[in-house]
Amino acid sequence: MIFSRFGLRIAAWNANGVRSRIIELRDFINKHSLDIILIQETHLRPGVSIRVPNYTLYRNDRQTQNIPSGGTAILVKSSLKYHHIPTPTLGAAEATIVVLTPPGENPLLIASIYIPPTTSPSACIHDLEKIFALEHSSILCGDYNAHHTHWGCNDNNPRGQLIKNLIDNTDTDIVAPNTPTRFGYNSASTIDFALTRNLYWVSDIVSSPELSSDHNPIILNFQTSIQFNFPTRNVSTNWERFRFHLADTPTFQPITAHSGEEIDEQVSTLTNQILTAYDNSSKQIHPNNNYYIDNDLRTLFKTRNRARKIYQYSRNPADKTILNRIQNKIKRKIQAVTQKQWEDKLASLDTVDGSLWSMTKGFKKKRSPISALKGNTGIAYTDEENAETLANSLESQFQLNNISNPTQDNNHIRLVTRFFNNENNFDDSPSITKPSEIVQIINNFKIKKAPGREGITNKMCKHFNRSVVFQLTNIINNILTVGYFPKNVENSFGYSDPKTWERPYSPR
Questions:
Q1: Are 133 and 90 in contact (CB under 8 A)?
Q2: How far apart are CA 478 and CA 491, in angstroms?
């Protein structure tokens, strides 16, 4: 898969039932290195789930009819920074919405849109305006069932005329392919396209003769210098080399600190030593994100795409017959491959390694997508807005109760004052920490716990050699002797100095 952190690559497709076509959709995603896939007419029910590796699915199923129909969904690459937001109440259109939040850039709303052909045209325009109003920059892409010669159709219909008026009278642009996107028995029309607002990127769009539906998927490329992809850095670490780089020495001379600045310097030196050793002992892993597709199926997909392209060009019934024959062959092959994969999966389950219970847990636990936070000022998109929303919520919940009792308070003050005035209550020096205590604490660490802000994981701690344990013990003893807590350790524990609380984006 070709990978780029810059620009944006989006596909939209009216699947006419995505569950039976998920295997070819996975192959299509891998082939075109897509960031976001907008799907219309998913025909899914709440009890049915579909998965694509390295992508997160958000969906809105139509539940007003007895048979599966309609519905929209969005597949978002996991390396993107984004939020899912609830779809507002719509009268005619169906939509699923996410907002991309690249650091330092304005949020970008992306919506998968499906407008059924029998709905009111004026209600559709009202729905589109309601979605556009959610964010400043927007891309609304999908199946509009709107015909107009302005974007390549042979005729105009009322919905197409209203969308043309929307384009002419507002800061809305249309991005439509030069070739039709839907092919009927006796017609071809361009009803799948994108509407953008307050977006001025260079873009191109194509209608690709692929996949099994009466609609071609459309692929949009937006050229921009904005970085959207932030892939997780996966590394493999040689822990023997890690311990070697930590420079183990047979003897260690404690260094006494006399001030907080000296303790901060010791902590910083040890932290840099650990992180440098980790970097020198690790190498990045470049995972293969391609989803495995049966070779026979992949060959059939290529043959089908070629036959589909020929038919869409010739419109010859004989070519349509050939295409249908290949489609039926693909359908039978997918059923056989899916059944074989399921049987192999069941046969591999075992109670000893826990795979059986893990799969059972997956069936019993239903996961719901986590939407963006909504505070008093609206939806929070950026990290700063999320922090402010959480801070305001906690501040409103944890207010001090009026439980003052002057008599009891005065008694407490007298007891505390008496304690501090008695010198016998204080030792001349705190008890010394031993390296064996540090080792015992490290042995109880859980390696799956998230690291602090400095980036030292519990797994690194479990591979500390004697030199690091001695240095850590020395620092702790200096902290107890001087009575000073290092600043960088304060930050790791989420502590902040009261003087910094009034910074623009720090939680209060």
A1: no
A2: 19
**How far, in Å, CA of 154 to CA of 2, rounded?**
37
Q: What is the pLDDT of residue 11?
A: 95
Alpha helices in 315-434 (DSSP H): 317-348, 355-364, 383-397, 406-421
Q: Model-level pTM?
A: 0.71
Q: Which residues contact 112 (CB under 8 A, 6 or more apart)?
A: 12, 38, 39, 40, 72, 73, 74, 95, 96, 97, 141, 142
- Neighbouring residues of 188: CB distance < 8 A, sequence distance ≥ 6: 180, 182, 312, 315
Residue 258 belongs to what H/E stretch? none
Instruction: Give me the phi and psi of 177, to 5 degrees please.
Output: -75, 165
Contact 195, 203 (CB under 8 A): no
> Is the CB of residue 61 less than 8 Å from the CB of residue 41?
no
Pick 364 or 358 by higher pLDDT: 358
State the maximum Cα–Cα separation within the chain, in Å, rounded to a whole number.
Answer: 103
Q: What is the 3-state secondary structure (H, E, C) of 371-402?
A: ECCEECCEECCCHHHHHHHHHHHHHHHCCCCC
Task: Check the CA dihedral 468-469-471-472 and report its sign.
Answer: positive
Confidence of residue 162 (pLDDT cuts 50, 70, 90): very high
Say which residues have a Cβ less than 8 Å from residue 250's Cβ, sequence separation at least 6: none
With vertex at residue 157, the alpha carbon angle to CA 154 and CA 158, rounded to the nearest 5 degrees, is 155
Q: What is the pLDDT of residues 327-338, one digit of tens each?
A: 888 888 888 888
Least confident of 50-59, 156-165, 220-229, 438-447: 220-229
Report CA-CA distances (Å) from 295 to 301, 333, 337. Answer: 10, 11, 11
* Percent of residues in the chain assigned helix, strand, coil, to nearest 5: 40, 20, 40
Both structure tokens of 17? 């039932």
DSSP for residue 215: B
Nearest to 277 by CA among 466, 460, 488, 492: 460
Token pair in block for residue 274: 């650990």
